[in-house]
Amino acid sequence: MMRLPGTENWDPVQVRRVIEFERNVARALPTLIASMAPASDYAEPEFDTNIAPNDRQFALVRAAELAFVTDQIELGLEICVELLQFRYGLPKTVMQAVQWASIGSALGRVKVRLDASGAQISTNVNLESRDFIDLFKIPWPETASQTVSLARRLIPAASASGEANEQIRLMPSQVEGRGHAAVAMIELTDEFAAALIIDGQMTRNEQSIRGLDRAPTKAELNRLQNSLFETFEASYLKRINMMRRTPMWNNLRVRGNLIDWSLLLFWISRLRHKNRARATGPRINELVFVRDLARKLAKL
């Protein structure tokens, strides 16, 4: 395993302090919110700190990412498990639910299933058996643009959860009105195409673009898969390079995720798939880091 390039000069003592600070934030927020409740909009008789939205989950995500990018894999996994075990309650917002499901899927403890009505999240966290139970549902938003944006975030987690034809069943023909167009648009995204290609399939749109009236060959699938991953990886490289150029980088106060969870989940999906792929690609250190981390997590 290697570190994310650009973190080599980070002071190990400062890294530990920031990680512990973020974990303390997660632990302290319920008490802090409760103490502020009488003066807040939540000052109601039925107020419950387990319902009020807060930053607990994202604090743990920041801590886990700091651990992973500085080659502290076991610590990163420990923090992720802490996040998943409901110690601080279930996710309170859609974006928290997406992040929670992504991390859970990466660790093999959460399954995401998409259908025409939304995303069903199931888990075996906190259970002794390996059986998964349905936990909560994320319905598709009202607008097409919001639906597509949410789906692009959830598809990688669904892909890492199992076979695409089992985890992604959109079937836009079952959706009426504006929802039909929104769900149909999901099938045009690169994320949807990548999920199917990892599973050895190609979308109807991709087949149409390539003028295919037959099932694609393995070589055609490989070329398209490589092209899609190059697009995802280029986006991650651009974002990391921008983050490293800011003064906040050396102070460990970066804005944004240090890890591209969608890219990581697609690599995990490739490695977990029945046609187990080798995690190979351009020898760019940032991308090597992602692939190495995917190898670790795919074995869980």
Give the secondary structure arrangement, pairings included.
Blueprint: H1 12-36, H2 56-69, H3 73-84, H4 94-106, E1 110-115, E2 118-123, E3 133-139, H5 144-161, H6 164-167, E4 168-169, H7 178-186, H8 190-198, H9 204-209, H10 218-244, H11 261-272, H12 285-298
Parallel strand pairs: 1-4
Antiparallel strand pairs: 1-2, 2-3
Helix pairs in contact: 1-2, 2-3, 4-5, 4-11, 5-7, 5-8, 5-11, 8-10, 11-12
Q: Please indicate the count of domains.
A: 1
Query: Span between N and C termini?
Result: 16 Å
What is the N-to-C succession of helices and strands?
HHHHEEEHHEHHHHHH
Going by helix content, strand content and strand pairing, the class is alpha+beta
Helix content: 40-55%
| Mean of all residue-level pLDDT scores | 82
Number of strands: 4
Rounded to the nearest angstrom, the radius of gyration is: 20 Å
Q: Unreliable stretches, pLDDT < 50, 5 or more residues?
A: 42-51
Global shape: globular
Biggest sheet, spatial arrangement of strands? 3-2-1-4
Helical segment tally?
Answer: 12
Largest sheet, in brief, is: 4 strands, mixed
Share of β-strand residues:
5-15%
Write up this protein:
- The chain has 300 residues and is an alpha+beta fold.
- It has one domain (12-298).
- Helices cover 54% and strands 7% of the residues.
- The chain is built from 12 helices and 4 strands.
- The protein has helices at 12-36, 56-69, 73-84, 94-106, 144-161, 164-167, 178-186, 190-198, 204-209, 218-244, 261-272, 285-298; strands at 110-115, 118-123, 133-139, 168-169.
- Strands 3-2-1-4 form a 4-stranded mixed sheet.
- β1 and β2 form a beta hairpin.
- It is globular and about 60 Å long.
